[in-house]
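Per reviewer request, we include the raw input and output of the structure prediction for the construct analysed in the revised manuscript.
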Amino acid sequence: MSGSLTFQVMKKDGAARRGRIVTKHGPIETPVFMPVGTQAAVKCMRPEQVKEMGAQIILSNTYHLYLRPGHELIREAGGLHRYMNWDRNILTDSGGFQVFSLGKLRKITEEGVSFQSHIDGSRHMLTPEKAVEIQTALGSDIMMAFDECAPYPADHAYIEDSMRRTCRWLERCKTAHHHTEEQALFGIMQGGMYKDLRKESAERISDLDLPGYSIGGLSVGEPKELMLDILDDCVDRLPAEKPRYLMGVGTPDYLFEGVERGIDMFDCVEPTRIARHGLAMTSHGRLNIKNARFERDFSPLDPECDCYACRHYSRAYIRHMFKAGEMMAAMLLTEHNLHFLITMMKNIRQAIEDERFLEYKKEFYAKYGGLDA
């Protein structure tokens, strides 16, 4: 089932792992943060900029690309890589999270999920087979199995039914994927906040011997302490020789906590979303560029950062751009935030190689503020 994907753990520091995934579009040094390009674009960024800052892989969204412009059009264009001018790795999610977030606009059955488009109200049916078909047309390097991302909170009976249906859907995804060996299929562990269900899910999906596995259904509104407790129980239940992906996590503290427990891959819209609201991640914590105190502050967003925004523009200028409603503000803040996380992950990889991950974590937290190492 591995197709063209290989994975090697090259160094460990406690449970933290320094590894390398290789696909036909090149290596992915892990642990890695994947910028999100929902609709075949990382918001406010040209692909060349994302590449220049060191991004090795981006994530695109199956649901959105299916509805617009359509997977067949992207297939006709030569696949997602050519369509969006990105020659490195792409992971596509299955669309499951999006259709389940539609609430009353969707209905779940054993066959799949029928839903109403948020764009034009048209009706659609997304099944495991359809999710694989769409992602095959997109031509991503890693495709995700179709799953249900259950809500929090939810009772044990609901999560049990949901998790077992997700396992059955994964089997159908694997069957539908058998002719698509150039794309690796990752399974998704579910089970909500119930450790017995997480255990069952891990056992069932691991039996399918897929090239990689992800942990879904976390960071969906539960308290941080509960999330970390469940994560502690989840990670070692997944095969150690396969990459482990924690879905939807992208704040510095969660990235450090995930790496410490043996997670290899992360994604989140957080750095790009908060940029559009005027927030910057810096080595000394978050900075709200809208604050009046930055009106005459001619220093960079982060004096310790060497991104394009920090090398060429001041806090005062970026604040002016934001207050004036100029797109430049979101562009510069987005570039800075992504550079910050990608650089942080590079430093984490080096710290694991040097067997000083926990020391680096403590140093980072002491400066970032509001975090406990």
